[in-house]
Write a structure and sequence with these properties.
- With 472 residues, the chain is of the alpha+beta class.
- 27% of the residues lie in helices and 24% in strands.
- The two termini are 34 Å apart.
- The strands form five sheets. Strands 14, 15, 16, 17, 18, 19, 20 and 21 form an eight-stranded antiparallel β-sheet that branches.
- The chain is globular, with a radius of gyration of 22 Å.
Length: 472
């Protein structure tokens, strides 16, 4: 009789047959022809082989999957969009609870609310909400799943106008470690609701998310302006100075990168240092054109791609550069300032790297993000002036560890300007010390208390893990 092996035991085919009979979705075994496709994740740095993949058709399947994993002692990985930088959406020898088939969404344009299932990507979510000229802060790459992105905080192009994605979460349905479904909101399970907004996937499998939406688009003034490496210092200092007076409607990002071989950049610039200033004005197109003009004249532009465009086009602008299948390493720091020495350090660090794709993203904070009280959600770093995302990306494994080492060294070099906190969505490496350092002490203590209540045995540990006080 065929059987499936995992790290602890062997699951007989009869047991698997019983499980399969209770599912509306699909059970994928290692022997199935679509197994390799089903186990693949966005970040190819993580090539793992789960014992089972349960492709859930709905909440009932999620409940059954959690019950099965717990009873069989299987490691649990939860998959939505599969963009987890640290590879938490897959497992060696465990079970993947795959919610990607769950892609329902209902938009209520009158109340400006949307209820969405966790398998949706931001591309699909925005497609539905933009039909009514509504949006919420979403991912910078539209193939990212909405669920994990929201639970970790959520930085995107509407950050300064609308706040973090998690700031706009009104409720969530969650299957907890005991296989039960609970609704978390300000009125029900408020401790869980607090923890979900920045505490990641530590507390269960989210099966539904209710969002507050905002009037945005369909047309916005947005895009990117590129400057040469020779103008990098001038462009970055100028952008930094402008962030001090930017209106909340304008969210921007400065990116230090090696120019990709794209047709809108001169061929002579390909492979050379450039600085890109990207942004979205979440107001009228006319006001956006005026407000962004200083960003477009920081130096002589190499290419100016800012202008009126559909909000959905801006949401997908970076997608061609961030396709699946490459090796990726991210690490992040929260910065309280960006003085001249910090800019010089970033440029020196970028020059020291050798990764084919290496980028230093400086996300401008403030605005609506900073007006939420620090203790209101588990994302507590409300006063960070900038969020720095350090990226090393390579098409294959050759040299990848060296590239990851460069990213870590760059993070360390920025310590003098760091608040000491972190952003869990941009962190490649797990580890309790790193997770604990990502939160203020009081916030972390509250997260442990929520973990003790909703997952005391740490069934959900494939995440930036908050360990229960029992030490599991």
């Amino acid at each position: 009789m065929a059987a499936t092996a995992n790290a602890r035991n062997v699951i007989g085919e009869a047991t698997l047959g019983e499980l399969e009979a209770t599912l509306r979705g699909q059970l994928v075994r290692p022997t199935d022809p679509d197994y390799d496709q089903a186990r693949a994740v966005w970040n190819a740095a993580h090539d793992r082989h789960p014992a089972l993949i349960i492709r859930c058709a709905g909440t009932a399947d999620v409940m059954r999957a959690v019950e099965f994993a717990r009873s069989e002692g299987l490691e649990v990985a939860v998959r939505g969009g599969a963009h987890s930088i640290a590879g938490f959406s897959t497992s060696d020898g465990g079970v993947v609870i795959d919610t990607s088939p769950m892609q329902g969404i209902r938009v209520d344009p009158t109340s400006r609310r949307a209820v969405a299932q966790p398998g949706l990507t931001w591309s699909a979510f925005d497609h539905e909400t933009q039909a009514f000229g509504l949006a919420v802060t979403g991912g910078l790459v539209s193939s990212t799943g909405i669920a994990g992105f929201t639970l970790g905080g959520g930085l995107g192009w509407l950050l300064r106008k609308c706040g973090l994605t998690c700031d706009n979460l009104l409720s969530a349905d969650v299957v907890t470690a005991d296989g039960q479904l609970v609704t978390a909101s300000e009125q029900e399970h408020p401790d869980l609701f607090w923890a979900l907004r920045g505490g990641g996937g530590n507390f269960g499998v989210v099966t539904s998310l209710e969002y507050r939406l905002h009037p945005v688009g369909p047309l916005v003034f947005a895009g990117a302006v590129f400057y040469t490496g020779a103008s990098a210092v001038q462009a970055l200092r100028g952008w930094r100075d402008l962030t001090a007076t930017m209106p909340d409607e304008l969210t921007t990002l400065a990116n230090v990168l090696v120019a990709p071989p794209v047709p809108f950049l001169p061929e002579a610039a390909h492979g050379q240092l450039v600085v890109a200033i990207l942004g979205v004005y979440a107001g009228s197109v006319e006001d956006g054109a005026k407000t962004t003009q200083p960003l477009r004249t920081l130096a002589e532009p190499l290419a100016d791609l800012m202008g009126p465009m559909p909000y959905t086009a801006m949401q997908g602008l970076l997608d061609p550069l961030w396709t699946t299948g490459a090796q990726n390493y991210f690490t992040a720091a929260l910065l309280d300032r960006l003085d001249d020495d910090a800019i010089d350090t970033l440029l020196a660090q970028h020059a020291a790297g050798e990764a084919p794709v290496r980028e230093l993203h400086l996300h401008h904070g403030g605005g609506a993000m900073s007006r939420v009280p620090a203790g209101a959600t588990a994302f507590a770093h409300r006063n960070a002036a900038y969020v720095l995302n350090i990226i090393a990306r390579s098409p294959d494994r050759e040299g990848f560890e060296q590239h990851a080492g460069w990213a870590r060294a760059t993070h360390q070099a920025m310590d003098p300007w760091s608040t000491g906190g972190g952003y869990v969505n941009f962190t490649s490496e797990p580890g309790q010390d790193k997770v604990q350092a990502s939160y203020p002490p009081d916030t972390y203590a509250r997260l442990v208390a929520a973990k003790d209540r909703y997952d005391p045995t740490n069934l959900f540990r494939l995440n930036q893990n908050v360990r229960p006080s029992g030490g599991h």
